[in-house]
Amino acid sequence: MRLIIVVILLFTFYFSLCTSSGAEIYDRVIASVNDQAITLSEFQAQFNNTKKLTPDTTEDEVLNTMINRLLLLREAKKYSIEAPSRDEMLNEYIDLKLRAFIRVGEKDIEEFYAANEDKFRGKGYEDSREEIEQYLTEKDLNVKLKEMLKELRKNAYIRTQLKPDK
Q1: Contact present, 125 and 113 (Cβ < 8 Å)
Q2: Neighbours of 109 (CB within 10 A)
Q3: pTM of the model
Q4: How many CB atoms lie within 10 A of CB 62?
């Protein structure tokens, strides 16, 4: 009888150790974009990396950036864009779909220089021209990218749940 009790106790002890050390690791989905999920661990890793560079960044900003990124990557894949990394794939897609159609006119560059001449610290127009053109191109690109993302978001199924239900 004692042997049976000892065996049962050892058996129970063994299984209690197995269940506590073999507990399931739980990673909940905090957002879904169409058929893709963003998990809490992915979000936390991205949030921590972003906080190192820009401490004022909020959780919502990071989550929205991750959602935008998934939407753009999906579009890039539709165009069969391939690149060694996701960042390069995004850049190539943006270059192909947006940057290629942005043209900054000479008149725009001249007007910008005239309005901001004091900010160029004595640099002449010709010395500043390329810098101004690049700035105006990026400014236009950001506007077009925001418009594109607004449209992509409108046509996508996006569900977020950053904070757990109580």
Answers
A1: yes
A2: 19
A3: 0.75
A4: 20
CATH of the domain at 107: 1.10.4030.10
- Is 165 contained in some domain? no
Q: Please indicate, yes or no, if residue 125 is contained in any of the structural domains.
A: yes
User: What are the counts of helices (DSSP H) followed by strands (DSSP E) for the chain?
Assistant: 6, 3
Q: Which of 27, 26, 31 is nearest to 162 (CA)?
A: 31
Q: Is 166 a member of any domain?
A: no
What pLDDT shows up at residue 124?
Answer: 87
What total number of domains does the chain contain?
1
Residue appearing with tokens 């004091």: 118
pLDDT tens-digit series, residues 114-154? 999 888 887 888 988 999 999 999 999 999 999 999 999 99
Percent of the chain with pLDDT over 70: 83
Range of the domain at 84: 2-160
